[in-house]
Automatic annotation (TrEMBL), chain A:
<keyword id="KW-0732">Signal</keyword>
<keyword id="KW-0813">Transport</keyword>
<dbReference type="InterPro" id="IPR050490">
    <property type="entry name" value="Bact_solute-bd_prot1"/>
</dbReference>
<dbReference type="InterPro" id="IPR006059">
    <property type="entry name" value="SBP"/>
</dbReference>
<dbReference type="InterPro" id="IPR006311">
    <property type="entry name" value="TAT_signal"/>
</dbReference>
<comment type="similarity">
    <text>Belongs to the bacterial solute-binding protein 1 family.</text>
</comment>
<dbReference type="Pfam" id="PF01547">
    <property type="entry name" value="SBP_bac_1"/>
</dbReference>
<protein>
    <submittedName>
        <fullName>Extracellular solute-binding protein</fullName>
    </submittedName>
</protein>
TrEMBL record, chain B:
<keyword id="KW-1003">Cell membrane</keyword>
<dbReference type="Pfam" id="PF00528">
    <property type="entry name" value="BPD_transp_1"/>
</dbReference>
<keyword id="KW-0472">Membrane</keyword>
<dbReference type="InterPro" id="IPR000515">
    <property type="entry name" value="MetI-like"/>
</dbReference>
<keyword id="KW-0812">Transmembrane</keyword>
<feature type="transmembrane region" description="Helical">
    <location>
        <begin position="72"/>
        <end position="93"/>
    </location>
</feature>
<feature type="domain" description="ABC transmembrane type-1">
    <location>
        <begin position="68"/>
        <end position="259"/>
    </location>
</feature>
<feature type="transmembrane region" description="Helical">
    <location>
        <begin position="238"/>
        <end position="259"/>
    </location>
</feature>
<keyword id="KW-0813">Transport</keyword>
């Protein structure tokens, strides 16, 4: 793992017991260029997530159809919570435990630059680049190299409680713009149908950056300028944060927002205690589950509202990658290709929407979720990407902390973002 | 005085039971009532417990059942091993004089002070090469390295509270040092051993980070990790977490009920010995 | 009282300590040394490879890192307040449980209850109780306070959750210590006309010092490396107000893959807690205590 090779450790420690232990450990692969393998046989271990998108049952069925066609390859899928996914990939990297891993859109730069996942640009058929949604390709791309194949498409949509809007006499059409959304929220508040029309996932976590990205994009802001320097502390970036803070000051946003994650937003919305929220695709299914929800049948999903400049949704896609430590890279890529293939994805469109552009016009796909697919078709065409930077996680932590400073009224938006920019610029350079 | 004491007992009961009963209530509230914040559910439901006990092992709730067993095996084995080596080693610290005694004790304590985060990656690599990832044995080995320093530290202090005259008497009667330890000291230290075992068991039962990284399937996943999976970015049923929590608390509480007599009464006996 | 020096004690000690040493150091020696070495290199990935030697610069970076000081402050506050609260409350509970009460088993079992709850659940429970929107705490108090909504209040709420759970272990260890104090000593003091309060300070506390030292050291170590409950309850927020050293180490080492820096942070934790532990033992002057 370190320059510290085994001999150095031995010299330093010099203990016989340690030598024995190290000998036992010397099977470490440590390779950054994995073996190709024959591609027709071998064992593959794959790391997926539970909770959302394709279910464990879906993946098991997809895998079964793959192994039926490739009887020489044995696949073992494993599932962990999204929250554990990153750390698991990091810990398993040096040991080469997994051949295939599922990564979030914000990780290809990190894992690619640290040589944990394999550059598969050469294996990409040329037509994929045109047949996939542009935003999908971003989930696997860093530095003009492709580190995997996109598999899951997601973004944040606007969910509204139509009953609340009716009572408050607010026109759902207004929600086409953020300005109109604000107007509706005021109307909702006045009518007393809810105390706080908005709740957001603004806890100090990645979820906060996702909401911010969507507003920043709508108001014409940018995370980075063309030279790669921080640009969120000017124009739309500042306006977005000021807008967010103002909704708290005006009592339109539930003050619990700064301690809430996506799941809390869902909970409050489902209890009918919020009227307009942003959330991922999964909430539509959850909000229409009569068992856990009192707003069934009153939920409408729409594109994220338009700002002064546009209406990009935050890119929340995920991609499947071959790890650098895999001994069966060819077979692993074959497996990934199967899972991400258009026919396979369309079969499970109910769980997660395909990365293929033409899928959104297929009746079979639309039928799985008629309320969502047409909105998705429009929204997934227009996505904003969080910076593809090696040190994105550190960048995001800095940004989260300063966004919270502004949301809690401890700093003015401009000051908070300037402070974040200072730190973030030095992170991006290192 | 007596009245005051009973009043304090009442207060203690409230402070302990209020959050705990909220946990129980939440585990029985249907999701929609839970989200409304009603104090008492109008339609209590046992469905979450039912899920946990009846659903297939591939579901999230079903995984819980298996992880309960994993946790029991891992925590019991860890406690047993750590306790045995801790009882032996603790005695050396309490009664024997040898070079580097202080240094050795602090070396053990220093291991306990290191945050697990610092060791996760190299440990993962070592376990991977020994093929112990995602196995109960791998977790047991890892947990012993945390629980043993705890046992050493507490046991050595329990030994110190025992009068040394008894051992000396046994030695005069011709007992070897080891014989005195096994026949005289250990029986006297029983309450200390039980208390140490109980808290050592809970240390292992409670551990989260190592388990999160080292386990991935029902082969070895432990309770804290299984419960953590109930909640996350895309799922939100606190009731299920609560139900899991109630069930996870049961084995340690039963153990405590079973052994509390030894923990406390025994101690008195030991000292007056 | 002093152990008699017997020839071969060293060998017997080795015999007694060898199993423990094997179980502990056999497992952790390699990771501990590897991490220690790593703290002297500029390691910025989990993957193997050549990383430049960094000397002490990772350690130096800790002290020039502006984010580190607030984090250290939170940790110090958390450690001092939670340990002190647990000690005071634990002492009260221990004295209570030591009194001749009816239903003793009931009260004693009650005290174990919070400790039996896994930290992960305890954190989720308090996050739920403290929720500003539908939390039961606001409902009971009839307030609308965002308990986890401002940095300092949130830190204190995390402490409340920690104290609720961990007072148990303190109470039990002190109770065990109390039982070793012969009743005659206290009765004698009372006969001499000492007040309850004076008896407590002049008879009970001095005899309890060994137990106090044990729990102080244990709780300080645990508090200083607190991670799980922060991870679940607040994720380090709001505005980084509940980030502790261990949580910060996690962010640096795992999320940001700055393993060299994370290793340096981890060793500084050991040095800080080690110093604290020695300080306690010195202050409590437990000369007959193990190791001192």
């Amino acid at each position: 793992m370190v320059a510290i090779d085994r001999r150095t450790v031995l010299r330093t420690a010099g203990g016989a017991g340690l030598a024995a232990l190290l000998a036992a450990c010397s099977g470490g692969k440590g390779a950054t260029t994995g073996d190709q393998g024959s591609g027709s046989s071998g064992e593959i271990r794959a790391l997926f997530m539970k909770q959302a998108a394709y279910t464990e049952a879906d993946v098991t069925k997809m895998t079964a159809s793959f192994t039926a066609a490739n009887p020489g390859i044995k696949v073992t899928p494993e599932f962990v919570a999204y929250e554990a996914l990153h750390d698991k990939i990091v810990a398993a990297g040096p040991a080469g435990t997994y051949d295939v891993v599922l990564i979030d859109v914000i990780w290809p730069a990190e894992f690619g630059s640290k040589k944990m996942i394999t550059d598969v640009s050469g294996q990409w058929p040329a037509e994929w680049k045109t047949e996939m949604l542009a935003g999908a390709i971003d989930t696997a791309e860093y530095d003009d190299k492709l580190y995997g194949v996109p598999w899951i498409m997601d973004t944040k949509y606007l969910f509204l409680n139509t009953q609340h809007l009716d009572v408050a006499n607010a026109n759902p059409q207004w929600l086409d713009t953020w300005e109109g959304t604000l107007k509706s929220a005021r109307r909702l508040k006045q009518s007393g149908v809810v105390k706080y029309p908005f709740i957001w996932s603004w806890q100090q976590a990645e979820a906060l950056v996702c909401d911010y990205a969507q507003l920043l994009g709508a108001m014409g802001g940018k995370f980075l300028d063309d030279s790669g320097k921080v640009a969120f502390n000017a124009g739309g970036g500042v306006q977005a944060l000021e807008w967010m803070r103002q909704t708290i000051v005006d009592g339109l946003t539930n003050p619990a927002s700064t301690q809430s994650l996506e799941a809390d937003v869902q909970r409050v919305f489902q209890a009918g205690q919020a009227s307009i929220v942003l959330n991922w695709t999964y909430m539509y299914g959850a909000a229409n589950d009569a068992k856990q929800c009192k707003v069934v049948g009153k939920v409408q999903v729409a594109q994220t509202p338009k700002g002064s400049v546009g209406r990009p949704g935050v890119n929340g896609g995920m991609a499947l990658c071959v790890t650098a430590g895999s001994k069966n890279q060819a077979a692993a890529f074959k497996y990934i290709s199967h899972l991400t293939s258009q026919p396979e994805q369309e079969k499970y469109a109910l769980s997660s929407l395909p990365v293929w552009a033409t899928s959104y016009d297929e009746d079979a796909v639309i039928k799985t979720n008629p309320a969502v697919v047409p909105q998705a078709k429009k929204q997934l065409d227009d996505l904003i990407l969080r910076p593809q930077a090696k040190s994105y996680n550190a960048f995001s932590q800095v940004l989260q902390a300063e966004l919270q400073n502004a949301l809690l009224g401890r700093k003015l938006a401009q000051k908070a973002l300037d402070d974040a920019a200072d730190k973030a610029n030095s992170l991006l350079q290192s | 005085m007596r009245k005051f004491q009973y009043a304090m007992c009442g207060l203690l009961a409230i402070v302990v039971l209020a959050p705990f009963s909220w946990l129980v209530i939440s585990s029985l509230s249907p999701a929609d009532e839970l989200n409304n914040g009603s104090l008492l559910p109008t339609h209590p439901t046992f469905s979450r417990y039912q899920d946990i006990f009846t659903s297939g092992t591939d579901g999230i709730a079903g995984t819980f059942r298996v992880s309960m067993l994993n946790s029991l095996v891992v925590a019991s084995a860890t406690t047993l091993i750590s306790l045995v080596v801790g009882c032996l080693g603790g005695y050396a610290f309490a009664r024997l004089r040898f070079r580097f005694r202080r240094t050795t004790l602090f070396a053990f304590l220093a291991i306990y002070m290191l945050p697990p985060i610092a060791l996760v990656i190299p440990l993962y690599l070592a376990l991977a090469n020994l093929h112990l990832l995602d196995t109960q044995l791998g977790l047991i080995v890892t947990y012993c390295s945390i629980v043993t320093p705890f046992c050493l530290w507490t046991m050595s202090n329990f030994y110190l509270s025992l009068p040394p005259e008894l051992e000396d008497a046994a030695r005069v009667d011709g007992c070897s040092r080891l014989g005195a330890l096994v026949r005289i000291v250990l029986p006297l230290a029983r309450p200390g051993i039980v208390a140490t075992a109980m808290f050592g068991f809970l240390l292992a039962w409670d551990e989260f980070l190592y388990s999160l990284i080292f386990t991935s399937t029902t082969n070895s996943k432990t309770i804290p990790v299984a419960i953590a999976e109930f909640t996350g970015k895309f799922s939100s049923d606190f009731g299920l977490v609560a139900a899991g929590g109630v069930l996870a608390a049961l084995p340690p509480v039963l153990l405590a009920l079973l052994f509390q007599r030894y923990i406390v009464n025994g101690l008195t006996g030991a000292v007056k010995g | 009282m002093k152990p008699v020096r017997v020839r071969g004690e060293g060998r017997f000690a080795l015999f007694l300590l060898l199993p423990a040493a094997t179980v502990v150091f056999g497992v952790v020696l390699y990771p501990v040394l590897r991490t220690l070495l790593m703290s002297f290199y500029k390691v910025d990935s989990a993957m193997p490879g050549s990383y430049p030697f960094a000397g002490l610069s990772n350690y130096a970076k800790v002290f020039s890192d502006p984010s580190f000081y607030p984090v250290l402050g939170h940790t110090a506050y958390f450690t001092v307040v939670s340990t002190a609260a647990e000690l005071v409350l634990g002492m009260g509970v221990a004295l209570l449980l030591n009194a001749p009460l009816r239903f003793k088993w009931l009260w004693r079992s009650l005290v174990v209850l919070p400790w039996a709850l896994p930290t992960i659940v305890n954190g989720a429970l308090w996050r739920w109780i403290d929720n500003g929107q539908y939390g039961v705490l606001n409902q009971l108090l009839g307030t609308e306070i965002q308990w986890l909504g401002s940095p300092f209040l949130a830190l204190n709420m995390v402490i409340v959750a920690d104290v609720w759970k961990n007072t148990s272990i303190v109470a039990f260890f002190l109770l065990a210590g109390l039982q070793t104090i012969p009743n005659e000593l206290r009765e004698a003091a009372v006969v001499d006309g000492a007040s309850t309060w004076r008896t407590f300070w002049q008879v009970v506390v001095p005899l309890l010092k060994p137990s106090i030292a044990v729990v102080l050291v244990l709780r300080t170590i645990e508090a200083f490396k607190v991670f799980d409950i922060v991870y679940v309850m607040t994720g380090g927020g709001p505005a980084s107000g509940t980030q502790t050293v261990a949580f910060y180490t996690y962010l640096q080492a795992f999320s940001n893959q700055l393993f060299g820096y994370g290793a340096a942070l981890a060793y500084l934790i050991v040095i800080a807690v080690g110093a604290l532990a020695m300080f306690y033992l010195r202050v409590l002057r437990q000369n007959q205590m193990a190791g001192v």
